[in-house]
Amino acid sequence: MNYLAIIHKESDSQYGVSFPDFIGCITAGETLDQAKELAQEALTFHIDGMIQDGEELPTPSKIEDVPDTGAFGHFFVSF
Fold it and tell me: What local confidence, expressed as pLDDT, does residue 40 receive?
């Protein structure tokens, strides 16, 4: 499955990443590449916990279904 990751960036901040399908699953990196790498780790950790707890994984959102928040960008993370 490919889950949508939203990139957040302010002028004086790191590259933040959040997942609209997984509230509370966030990470950040000094560079865009680092943020993407850490996003993969964060999502994997989050989903592994959900599976261990017997929770159902959400259906991945489509970019057109997520409200425009003025985010820096987006990418997809595979699980």
Answer: 97
